[in-house]
Amino acid sequence: MSSTWHILGAGSLGSLWACRLARAGKAVRLILRDPQRLAAYQAVGGLSLIEQAHSSFFAIPAEADEAHAPIHRLLVACKAYDAAPALARLAPRLAAGAELILLQNGLGSQDEVADQVPHARCIFASSTEGAFRPADWQVQFAGHGFNWLGDPLNPAPAEWFSDLEEAGIPAQWTVDILSRLWRKLALNCAINPLTVLHDCQNGGLLEHLSEVDALCAELAQLLHCCGQPQAAEGLNEEVQRVILATAANYSSMYQDVRHGRRTELHYLLGYACRAAHRHGLALVELEHLRQRLVDNLQARGLPSD
Ligand code: NAD
Ligand code: KPL
């Protein structure tokens, strides 16, 4: 089986992983959206990784998503709403026994992808690392964090897992990946939408702690109902710790809205509200928050699904 890391999406996290794997001598190949993006990339010839003030250049080979060679290992590094459509196009290229690593935040996109590729192993990841793109084909490493990876259907670690340590990508294999993803989803639901609605940095929510508390109480109820009691433990306290620790930051959803980009609402608050509905739980604060956010996005002319 080929040990090449195919990386779908040369955005922030995809580029961050690609550069670190390439630096460690791993075979890496970028899959770009179309021949135009490929031509633009080839004109530059590689990706630049900026860590603190230092920039390093990596001439990583790339292809457009219409190439034909088989794919054995694929890091899916696009936004949650792009993941399933991207995989629908790539599915015919996946070799028998192919493994996918799904970096998407939130929940829902992983199952959408798995439905497209029933014969591949889908490994879910939850990342607290931070990166952004100051320009095309450049990635700035903005925040040290951690990555948890796991497969809800198979507890055995992937055979390539040691590649991550060799590449300096901090990661741990966990059998509780769903609990990690639910916990992060709950944190994001309690913080991100309110930062958009109150037009503030995370620390601005210290003025709105009663709203945050009410959301945490409903989110904890939802987590229990969805069989994730561990993800509910101490949720309110952790949300408050994150608000304080990231007081000067703007949440990822705030930044998406400020830059006029589509948000991942459908896979965060939307997923939580749909799960509540499925369980017959009436979570009025959460549903009211979702409706206010949808109205806010629509008023800005942004997608609200
Ligand atoms: P991004 O928008 O920077 O990058 C996504 C890239 O995927 C874009 O370059 C886009 O053109 C590309 N893409 C989309 N469809 C494609 C296709 N069919 N073929 C090829 N390329 C395609 O996004 P990001 O910030 O890297 O986020 C990726 C995921 O990681 C999101 O779910 C996000 O929530 C999560 N995440 C991001 C960070 C971060 O700091 N950036 C941290 C934690 C989690
Ligand atoms: O993950 C985050 C985000 O902005 O998406 C934090 C900082 C935890 C806020 O929810």
UniProtKB/TrEMBL annotation:
> What are the alphabetically sorted keywords of the record?
NADP, Oxidoreductase, Pantothenate biosynthesis
Task: Select a single GO molecular function from the record's annotations and give it.
Answer: NADP binding
Q: Name one GO biological process term.
A: pantothenate biosynthetic process
Question: What is the enzyme's class at the highest EC level?
Answer: oxidoreductase
- Cellular component aspect of the GO annotation: cytoplasm
Location of the Ketopantoate reductase N-terminal domain: 5-151
Q: Which family does it belong to?
A: Belongs to the ketopantoate reductase family.
Name of the protein: 2-dehydropantoate 2-reductase
Q: Which organism is it from?
A: Pseudomonas putida (Arthrobacter siderocapsulatus)
